[in-house]
Amino acid sequence: MTPELLIAFIAFAFVTSVTPGPNNTMLLASGANFGLRRTLPHMLGISLGLMLLVLAVGLGLGQLFEQLPALYGTLRYVGAAYLLYLAWKIAQAGAPDSAGGRRGKPFSFLQAAAFQWVNPKAWIMAIGAITTYTPQENFLLNVLLIAGLFALVNCPTMSVWTVAGSLLRTWLSSPRVLRRFNIGMALLLVASLYPILVDFGGAR
Asked: Does the global pTM surpass 0.85?
């Protein structure tokens, strides 16, 4: 990979990782509800899951979806349904339970990693990285490089959203304000589906 292509890919990885989407919306909500430390497994799981997804696309999974477009379309709807479920869970988070505590818990490392496989934006990122920035010469080595760099760029950029959420915790100390915030995050997560699914469908 040439230095110019490497710089271009790092810029692509940064922009796609730091811009709003399902992962960052959930990290903002998790940082606000559970704090930075408890959200760290969620962040690391996203990075690992995305890295494995890029590897899988580079090693042939992307070609499988080109040959089986129905399977590709099914993933869109499964991902959309799961995101709607997560939006509902976020909207419910922070509501006081009978003991005065908070319902819910942050995503685990494995949950966050597995979520990338039904996250439409993650698929767009992985397919874009392989088809646009991976030279055919020494292809396998370049796929490994692209996947590793994506994970390295992804984690610190996502932390911006988690830190932003954790900084809001004092302002969100009121259960009523926290509930409104979580409902707003849930609505943003639902809204993020529209452009993602349009792009995802257009990429077929």
From this structure: no
Distance CA 26, CA 42 (A): 9
Is residue 121 classed as helix, strand or coil in its secondary structure?
A: helix
Residue 69 in this model has a pLDDT that exceeds 80: no
Q: pLDDT of 125-138, one tens digit each?
A: 888 888 888 887 88
The boundaries of the domain holding residue 102 are 3-202
Model confidence pLDDT, tens digit, residues 14-31: 988 888 888 998 999 899
pLDDT digits (tens, 9 = 90+) for 1-14: 788 888 889 998 99
**Percent helix / strand / coil, the chain, rounded to 5:** 80, 0, 20
Q: What angle do CA 82, 85, 86 make, to 5 degrees?
A: 90
Q: Which residues pair with 102 in a beta bridge?
A: 96
Query: What is the SS3 assignment for 96?
Result: strand
**Does residue 181 contact residue 172 with C-beta atoms inside 8 Å?**
yes
What are the phi and psi torsion angles at 96 (to 5°)? -65, 140
Residue 35, Ramachandran bin (φ over 0: left; ψ between -120 and 50: alpha; else beta)? left
Q: What is the mean pLDDT of residues 65-77?
A: 67
Q: Which residues contact 128 (CB under 8 A, 6 or more apart)?
A: 12, 16
How far, in Å, CA of 15 to CA of 80, rounded? 22
Retrieve residue 84's tokens.
Answer: 């709607």
